[in-house]
Amino acid sequence: MPRSKSDPVTTGRALLGVGSLLILMAGVLLLVLRIAQQNYMMALGVVWVANG
């Protein structure tokens, strides 16, 4: 019995879904890091003003 190959359209869609998910996760990670960096800079500013 010949084995049926997976449909290339289905494989392409699956790869597209995985790729878009990875891009979305990278975007969320960058957004969280940017917010954390802003909070860190604000905290440093508060400490600098309090010590000054």
Structural write-up:
This protein has 52 residues and is mostly helical. It has a domain at 28-52. It contains one helix and no strands. The N and C termini lie far apart (81 Å).
Topology:
Blueprint: H1 8-51
Keywords: Membrane, Transmembrane, Transmembrane helix
Transmembrane segments: 12-33
Which key terms come to mind for this protein?
mainly alpha; 52 residues; transmembrane; membrane; transmembrane helix
Brief account:
With 52 residues, this protein is mostly helical.
Share of helical residues: over 70%
Q: What is the average per-residue confidence, as pLDDT, rounded to a whole number?
A: 86
- Separation, N- and C-terminal Cα atoms: 81 Å
Catalogue the unreliable spans. Answer: none
Order of helices and strands: H
Q: Please tally the β strands and state the result.
A: 0
Number of helices: 1
Oligomer: single chain
| Backbone shape | rod-shaped
Largest sheet: none
The helix-and-strand class reads: mainly alpha
Query: Percent of residues in beta strands?
Result: under 5%
Radius of gyration: 23 Å
